[in-house]
Design brief:
Length: about 180
Amino acid sequence: MSEIMVKDAMTKDVVYVNPNEKVIEIAKKMREKDIGSMVVCKNKKLVGLITSEDLIKRIIIPNKDPKNMTASDVMTKKIITITPEENLSDAVITMLDNNIKRLPVVDEDKLVGILTDGDILRMAPNLIDSWIKGGSRESEPEVIGDVCEICGNYSDNLTKVNGLWVCEECRDSSPKI
């Protein structure tokens, strides 16, 4: 798919905050830098990620007062990462499989960059097809867990058939596919 390595496409100058930084200040930094996320590090070690969606889900919607909230109060702690030596196409698959737009890049537990969907599209426009089509590993069947596009029921075993993600029941019985 691609010979480009993550280290060639990632943003190296990552803006990050510490876990004790106030959410209000983090939101201001995100607005000033025109970025949709902020990496949270302690001694250059990745400990979390805050996205604008996190701020909406964890502060705005539950109507919480952000004045005394810190990064550690709203950050996502379970972060999917990638190393700088991995292939960019593997990064695309990881992002697609996990429905994420940002992938922190770590080397021996230290943050060395961040890979975004914009970085990928800028460096490897040929991966757009994979992105749009819901890319998959060529050696593995395309199977995901999501909502069937025919019956609307959730399934852990969706397969792409004629451009639609369908469950096993619909694959076996639907005249639409």
